[in-house]
Amino acid sequence: MPSSNRPQDVWKKASAGQPPKRPGQRTNGGAGRWFLAAFLVVAIGGAIAGLLFYLWPDRPPVLLAIPVTAYEQQDWPPNPWGEADARACLERLPTDTTQTFQAQEKQAILRELNRAAEDSRGRPIIVYLSALGVPADGKVYLIPGGGRPDDPGTWLSLDEILSPLRRATAPRLLILDVAPATDPRAVLVSEDVNDALDTALAKLTDSGDLPFFVLTANTRAAGANVFRPLRRTAFGLALAQGAGGEADGWNPDRKRDGRVSVRELATYTRELTQYASIAAGFPSQLPRLHGTGADFDLFRVPHDGPSPLPTMGDPEPYPDFFQNGWKDRDTWVADRVHIRAPRLIHQLTLTATRAERRWLAGGNSDAIRATFDATVSRLREVRPTLLPIATPIGSIARVQKPIPKLAATTDALQGAFNRILESPGVERDKALTEAMKAAWDKPVDTEPFDATAAAIFAFAQNLEKPTHEQIKQLAALIAGFKPRPPRHAELLTLTLIGGLNPDEVERWPVGAIATLIQVARSAEDAVACDGRFLPWIKGDLAKADETRRNATNDLCNPKSLDRMRRAAVADLESVQKGYESIRAAVGALEIIRGEYEETRAVLVDLAISFPLEVMPNPEVVANMWGPLVEDFLRVQQLLHPPPEPRLPDVGELGRAAQSLRADREELRSALKVPDSGSIRQYETLLRWPNWSQTDRMKLLAQLGETERTVTRKVLDGWPKEPPNREPAVIGKSSPQVAADTMRVLRRELAILRLVDGPDAVELATQLDRLGPDATQPVAELARKVRTAMRRQLADVYRAANPERQAFMGWAVDPDDVPAFPQAGTPGSPNPELIYQRSVEKDFHDWLAANRYAVDAKLFGASPLKPLQAAAIGYRNIVQLYTDPFR
Length: 886
Fold this sequence. Notes:
Elements: H1 7-15, H2 28-55, E1 62-67, H3 82-90, E2 98-99, H4 106-118, E3 125-136, E4 139-143, E5 156-157, H5 158-167, E6 172-180, H6 193-207, E7 213-216, E8 226-227, E9 232-233, H7 234-246, E10 259-261, H8 262-279, E11 288-290, E12 297-300, H9 320-334, H10 337-340, H11 342-360, H12 365-382, H13 406-421, H14 426-441, H15 450-462, H16 468-479, H17 489-499, H18 502-506, H19 512-527, H20 534-556, H21 562-608, H22 618-622, H23 625-638, H24 650-669, H25 679-686, H26 693-716, H27 734-754, H28 760-769, H29 775-799, H30 802-808, H31 831-860, H32 865-882
Parallel strand pairs: 1-2, 1-3, 3-6, 6-7
Antiparallel strand pairs: 3-4, 4-5, 7-11, 8-9, 10-12
């Protein structure tokens, strides 16, 4: 029987010719069967392992996400939606592979980086770090939570961030989402931080010193491109979608394998960030991938497919505390608080705009409110103390206009006025007495009878040809008010005339009574002014007062000859013109000071916050700044008290005031709420703090509507496949950053110049010496200017006397010296009002001593009882003006 290939047959052939087995001895055939069985088990196990390797994901990477958003220094701008972007990345991995991101301080961040690098246990490492960044001294820095604007030692250098990851051996990816911190309140830089970052990383890559991948957001200098309806930035949105599986297949071969590698994620994020930015009307943003090493997988595509795009959420209602803050600001401006205390308004608007900006950037409303309320509540406590200066009222001219109850009082006195106009007689006198008694018994206004005094004197002024009899009856009307009659200086002239002998008054030249009344009015009108104007008017005022009192004495003296009386009336007519000249000068000074103070109230905002970049012709608008500064300086010099008393040139004051107003309003009129615009335009416009509440709400509404429209457009057109092209290369932002820095430096130096700030002239000279390409010297000068503006100016202010503080207070940053009381800061936090009160007291002391006391002395020496009575009235005014100034 022929041999077969069956196993038993093979076994037989293999055993032929072998010696016989000993009892208990195994044959080779048993070992073969065991070997075959083992081989089959290993083969099946390998197949199962391979299947498991394919079906189950690789060991997931370690993801460390650190968004730095809690900045202690309020000067730093917000890091928009940094935490939301970080959370979106964390959601792409199992929770046991992610690490918390509470680290905000420099040492804590470095500690977390070192721990991630050392504890990866061979797993890939992904570090997502989002923070503000600045370039300085040729290096790139990220700003930790405790970073101080004027201390680079508190910042995180790029090398400090890269060093821990260099020591790691596992595959690793560093994602840097660096938001430029080019806000003038923080630091001024001469180049874009992401330009500097790109240059530094490219240099390290070329030299082989970056043995891992670094993906940068490459956010442009204008700031992050934000989609508030999605609560993400463009970069964060693209990164999360790529990590969620959509980046699978974004490789040169367009092959999908269920995984997302580093290069696929970078390609996807690069393309989709650019797409979202352009589609939304934002500036172009093109992330960059740096470093060397083999590509490796980061994420698995979920079993149910890539993560869907986020949906638009309902907009968060505008917080009530903002609404109340802006309402307060409008009310305070309407009450002229910005003129009396510009620092208070400045701090309120600064606090509100900064808090609003943080809210728009995704900050926590409760935390923002706590910070906002802490400052604004203190300002609200100060506000009631900043009432308008209540000057002692010794004349009708000084009564607040419009005079309360004037119309009603005039109506109540009209019966007496009508009787006074009638010819004297028994019936008339009886009716007049009854009319006067009615006015005395039920006066419309009470002591000090401001409305009564104004109504009576206005009636006397309007008499075409006033007679002694009429003035006598007006004097009687004045005397009847209880508990004591009105004591206004103008009324003393009526009382004087009414008390004179009718026969003596008959000897006066025609029109003398009317002249005396008009002179009394003009004399008081001339000094119804801001006490700060005394240095200009006191010389002419003293001469006019001397002429007035001597002429009045000569006119009333019964021993005066007719020619002396005529000369006295001529002097009175002349002195009236002198008083009117003083009044005209005072009026011009009031106008120009008003324009000066209106401009002063917004000058810092015009210098720092004016949104030039959204103007249709930014260069034209920028050129308006120079004339405004020069006009402000000119007005400031015109308002400097003259060394010797002299009336100012009214025409020159008028022209200077008009020019300053025109320059200011031309700039302000350039800011209008547009009917349509881009998201970035509305964001930029909202940084201007001087919108009315109505305009601000309109801007916010248009911003919200535009954002939702644009976001829907971006989501609807979201690309699903890689394009057949490379995104266009974006030019560097640094040239524009340098130009912007130079512009801001000139404005800040102008502010220093206007308040005689520290080193203003020397710093301006240094700026003029810089050429267009002097990048590093610009950065150095910017730090010097910031030190002068924020530290040195505040120190000078604290050490200054009240007058100096009032001169420079508007320019001192309220973050450095708050507009509410603070321990360690001498003097009032709002010195303008305190200084003006002091000046007003000096002014009234001068009037008491040099006008009314002299009037009282001269008239009191007369034997005439009417003049003596007038002297008593002037002494009362002296007492009023020398009492403690209220």
